[in-house]
Write a structure and sequence with these properties.
mainly alpha, 360 residues, Serine Threonine Protein Phosphatase 5, Tetratricopeptide repeat
């Protein structure tokens, strides 16, 4: 709230007229009126008497807060996110930076702003823009990594590793990974067993479901890593095997019910099929990739929490990204992949791009 509106609200709560306030403070009623309409602000020397008269501190009068709550951060950054979505990336960054200047010591805000920069790192298809966004995100996250608490530092390290990989600063990425403490015991599993003995079954199930989801996710990501190694070796047979095993893990553990990597695996499968010359099958997989990605986005970003019949104690959170922005990113990936060059003149491939272009 602006200071003028705050003065007006508090004055009225005290049942004071502008004239009474002016007389008590030794100013004119016109001065009070200007404060309340925003035409002027009180002099510095007037802040303490004014705050005392209104029964609050100067900090409260000025709405001074050393840091924001997480809820406040989310609300403020949502407005900036919408600017990115509206293709006003420059305005979004300026607004974020103004907010960071207003709260220069708020590490949670810095971490959240860096996350927003990363989410919309490709908002402008310009190499210098991308480099600038990466550099700024790294700067913000390094401050959180070095000065924040354990949870904030861990979150920052996770994002920093990916950013340093994008910058091809691989030794730095490994250095940060080495900082991450390695757990000596599986806390979730042990907590789940303890909760079982206490007959707190809902919480115990939540622990075990979280652990199962995490293990499954890590298994799939490990197989994707092996796929990429095989791809670099041009061992497409092994690459295909890795994709099929990963898909089986997702299917058997029912991970797609709350947002697994099933659609992404279809993309990888399409890459293998292109290499094998099976172009019809490749396009079919890309169609599943596009449809699955958009359907998963719709489920996760619906007003109702996404629930699974198996992972019923867990739910998927909204990404915040719009369907149109997601579609633009998918389209850019499809058009930019050299491995799909053999598909780009096909009408069914072009139809996929048209479908993505129509997403609103």
């Amino acid at each position: 709230m602006e200071i003028g509106k705050r003065i007006q609200q508090l004055r009225r709560e005290k049942n004071l007229t502008q004239e009474q306030m002016a007389a008590a403070l030794g100013v004119t009623s016109a001065a009070v009126s200007k404060w309340e309409t925003g035409a002027a602000i009180p002099d510095v020397g007037m802040l303490c008497p004014l705050a005392r008269m209104l029964g609050i501190t100067v900090d409260a009068l000025l709405d001074f807060r050393p840091a924001l709550t997480q809820e406040e951060i989310n609300v403020l950054l949502e407005d900036r996110r919408k600017l990115f979505e509206e293709k006003k990336a420059g305005e979004a960054v300026q607004s974020c930076e103004a907010l960071l200047r207003e709260y220069p010591n708020d590490l949670h805000l810095k971490c959240a702003a860096a996350g927003l920069y990363i989410m919309y790192i490709a908002a402008v298809l310009d190499e210098k823009w991308v480099e600038g966004q990466i550099e700024r995100a790294v700067c913000l996250l390094e401050q959180c990594r070095n000065n924040g608490g354990a949870d904030l530092a861990a979150c920052s390290r996770s994002m920093l590793v990916n950013l340093y990989v994008m910058r091809e600063d691989l030794d730095k990425a490994l250095e940060i990974l080495d900082e991450q403490p390695q757990p000596e015991i599986n806390v979730r599993f042990m907590r789940g067993n303890i909760l079982l003995r206490k007959n707190e079954l809902d919480e115990a199930e939540k622990m075990f479901q979280t652990e199962l989801w995490t293990v499954g996710r890590n298994a799939v990501l490990g197989l994707v890593g092996l796929y990429n190694a095989a791809r670099l070796r041009k061992d497409w047979k092994r690459a295909g095997e890795c994709v099929e095993i990963a898909a089986a893990v997702e299917r058997d553990l029912r991970m797609d019910e709350i947002g697994g990597l099933t659609s992404t695996l279809q993309f990888l499968r399409a890459e293998v099929l292109c290499r094998e010359g099976k172009l019809d099958d490749a396009v079919a997989c890309l169609r599943e990739y596009v449809n699955g990605g958009l359907e998963q986005w719709a489920r996760v970003n619906s007003e109702e929490l996404v629930k699974s019949s198996f992972y019923d104690k867990l739910n998927a959170g909204a990404s915040g990204m719009s369907a149109a922005y997601l579609a633009r990113n998918i389209s850019a990936v499809l058009e930019g992949m050299e491995n799909f060059d053999a598909l780009k003149e096909r009408e069914d491939f072009k139809a996929l791009l048209r479908k993505l272009a129509d997403v609103e």
